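quick one before i forget lol
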Amino acid sequence: MTTTDVTWMHAQVADLEHRIVALESRISGSTRKPPHHELLVSLYLDALKGPRFEDDFVRHWERQTFALDVRQLLVLARSIRDPFPWRPFLRNADLYVAKGFDFSEARTYLLDLARDLLRIQGLSKLSPRDVMGHALPDLSRLTV
C-alpha cells in the first residue's frame, strides 16, 4: 500500500465521519451548509485579528468553531496556502480559555480537527501543538 493510498483512505474516513455528523444533525433537525471558501478566508482573517473578550463575540467564535470541519480546513489551507490554517483559531481558543471563558469544548473540537488534517496531510506524527511555532501576533489592539 502506497502513501497515496493511505492518504486517500484517511480522507475517506474523515469524510465518512463528517457525513455521519451531518446525518445526525439532519435527524435532530439542524442543518448547516458549509461556508463558501471566500467566507472561510474572511473568517480566517478575522481570527488573525485576535479575539475580543465580550460574551457575544466569544459565543460567535464558539459557533464558528463548531461549524468548521476537516474539508473546510483543507479548502482554507489551499486558498490561503497555509498548511495549518487552524493555528489562529487555536490561538484564540487558548486565549479564551486562559481568560476564563467556557471555551474548552470548542478548543478540544478544534484540536481534533487539526489532528485529522495533519493525519490527512501525512503528518500524523506531529501534534497540533508541535506546529504552533512562535505565537501568532495578537493583532486585536490594531482593530477598531
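fyi Residues 3-27 form the longest helix (25 residues).
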